[in-house]
Specification:
Layout lengths: L2 H20 L6 E3 L6 E3 H17 L4 E4 L15 E9 L1 H6 L5 E8 L2 E9 L4 E6 L4 E3 L2 E3 L10 E4 L9 H11 L5 E3 L4 H9 L5 E7 L1 H13 L3 E3 L12 E6 L12
Parallel strand pairs: 3-4, 10-11, 10-12
Antiparallel strand pairs: 1-2, 4-5, 5-6, 6-7, 7-8, 8-9, 12-14, 13-14
Helix pairs in contact: 1-2, 5-6
């Protein structure tokens, strides 16, 4: 299969999903397990749309998605093609009209990242990457910043569904604040990694992510020249939950506050 054909079709589907997000009613909310862990009917609607359209284009692919009980990574998904979907990354943002929220589509090939597409429909920003072919923003090649940490914004996630991780999260935040320009928090991990990929921020960290949070974003960041590992400096597994540390080109070493 041609990577050009794959990425263009996936981009088209991501943009159509973004239109659903823009026109949706965010008021119909369902709660899941964990603190402030929400799902809306729009999350489920977009995921069903993605599975239908991507399934038509790639009938051989399997699907892992955050909603509707399709959130378990199985042994079978480690071979062949597997789409990893987050229909709305930033559901709380979506509910409260606090931007952004994004559609995230990752494609694993034999258990490793192969294609990543993330779309922010509110700003019409489309990030795409194919393994080994670079990262693109609205069709233009991008690279992460070459600025040092001292000249960079740091963005982080609070892993809000896992209260036991809050102490270390904010301890790191407290220690890294004097080393950078300032801290930011957006509420969507996929968007945060895209911000590092396009040079708005120099570093992102979070103590726990699910596979659908990072499958697409990690590839997009890596292809933009970033180093991405877990919080302890180990490679990401792409099998399930992990911590994450994403650093731009200008940050050569893992800051000591992560030790």
């Amino acid at each position: 299969m041609s990577s050009t054909v794959e990425i263009e079709r996936i981009i088209e589907i991501a943009k159509e999903a973004g239109e659903i997000m823009l026109s949706a009613d965010s008021s119909k909310i369902k709660e899941k397990s964990g603190h402030a862990n929400f799902c809306t009917e729009t999350d489920e609607k977009i995921q069903a749309f993605l599975i239908e359209k991507l399934g038509e284009a790639y009938p051989e692919a399997q699907f892992l998605g955050e909603e509707d009980g399709q959130d378990v990574f199985t042994e079978k998904m480690r071979s062949g093609l597997c789409f990893v979907l987050d229909p709305i990354d930033g559901t709380s943002n979506f509910i409260y009209s606090y931007r952004p929220s994004v559609v995230s589509i990752g494609l694993l090939k034999d258990g490793q990242p192969y294609v990543g597409v993330i779309y922010n429909p509110y700003d019409d920003l489309l990030f795409s990457a194919v393994k080994g072919e670079g990262t693109y923003l609205n069709g233009e090649r991008i690279m992460s910043s070459d600025s040092p940490l001292s000249d960079s914004l740091v963005v982080f996630g609070t892993a809000p569904y896992y209260e036991g991780l809050q102490e270390r999260t904010f301890d790191i935040a407290k220690k890294i604040l004097p080393l950078c320009v300032d801290l930011r928090r957006s509420g969507t991990a996929a968007w945060d990694m895209c911000c590092v990929a396009m040079g708005r921020c120099g570093l992102y960290f979070e103590m726990r992510l699910q596979l659908w949070d990072y499958a697409a974003a990690a590839l997009i960041a890596t292809e933009a020249g970033c180093i991405i590992t877990d919080i302890d400096g180990n490679p990401l597994s792409f099998k399930g939950p992990t911590s994450a540390l994403c650093m731009s080109r200008g940050i050569k070493e893992r800051p000591e506050c992560f030790n």
